[in-house]
From TrEMBL:
Pfam families: MARVEL. The chain crosses the membrane at residues 38-59, 71-99. This is SNG2 protein. Residues 1-16 form the signal peptide. The keyword Ribosomal protein does not apply. GO terms for cellular component: neuromuscular junction; synaptic vesicle membrane. Keywords: Membrane, Signal, Transmembrane, Transmembrane helix. It is found in: Membrane. It is a multi-pass membrane protein. Residues 1-134 form the MARVEL domain. Belongs to the synaptogyrin family.
Amino acid sequence: IFALIVFACLVGEGYTNLPSSPRLFCIFNHNEDACRYGIGIGVLAFLACIFFFMVDVYFPQISNATDRKYLVLADLGFSGLWTFLWFVGFCFLTNQWAWTRAEDVRVGADSARAAITFSFFSIFSWVSGATGEP
């Protein structure tokens, strides 16, 4: 859910324009990479969650112990990797937001703050997946 919120905030109001120009730019210090990174990890995290949810649904029907072990290790490894990527995303978005000039952001400041906040919450969400806690 956090990944979906980050993605929606950045797609919905992460890009804006100046009143004098129709050209859109990322509200995070005009850095397109910040918006792309947040959208990218948000979409991939959401798709991975769907995949691992389906694995959890079909897990009791998998009789091969080796396959079960590899699926659990894949879930653990992916959760660890995505914990790191959310941490990088949180730091990147926060840094770019700190350098953003107030006059460049007329609309979308709340969405930018929400994206930063929920990327921070995502760190703990993925840590709980990596440690095996429910």
